[in-house]
C-alpha cells in the first residue's frame, strides 16, 4: 500500500510560491504543485482562473469567518474536499470539527 504513495513523482510534492493580487494587494501563496493543479482544475470547472478562484475563496472565507488564520491550509483542505465531493463520497465535515458547540 505505501508503495503507491512513496513512488509519487517528487514534482507533485515540491512547493511553489505564486504571487497574486487580492483587492489590489500583492500576496504570495506557497503550496505543493499537486494542490496548484487541483486548484486549477477546480477553477476551470467553475469558469474562473486560478487567481480569480483564490480571490473569491478569500472573500467568502473572510465574510463567513471574519478573519483568516491560515489561508494556505484552507486552500489545501478545499482541494481535498473538492476531490472527496468529486469522487462522490459526499461531505463528512463532522470528522474535522473539534470542540463544536451546539
TrEMBL record:
Domain Ribbon-helix-helix: 16-83
Gene Ontology MF term list: transferase activity
Pfam family, one: RHH_4
UniProt feature coiled coil, ranges: none
Highest taxon of the lineage: Bacteria
Protein name in UniProt: Aryl-sulfate sulfotransferase
Keyword line: Transferase
Amino acid at each position: 500500500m505505501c508503495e503507491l504513495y512513496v513512488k509519487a513523482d517528487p514534482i507533485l510534492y515540491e512547493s511553489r510560491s505564486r504571487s497574486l493580487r487580492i483587492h489590489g494587494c500583492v500576496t504570495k501563496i506557497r503550496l505543493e504543485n499537486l494542490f496548484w493543479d487541483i486548484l486549477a482544475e477546480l477553477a476551470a470547472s467553475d469558469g474562473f482562473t486560478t487567481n480569480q478562484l483564490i480571490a473569491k475563496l478569500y472573500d467568502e472565507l473572510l465574510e463567513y469567518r471574519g478573519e483568516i488564520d491560515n489561508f494556505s491550509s484552507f486552500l489545501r483542505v478545499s482541494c481535498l474536499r473538492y476531490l472527496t465531493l468529486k469522487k462522490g463520497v459526499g461531505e463528512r465535515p463532522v470528522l474535522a470539527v473539534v470542540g463544536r458547540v451546539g
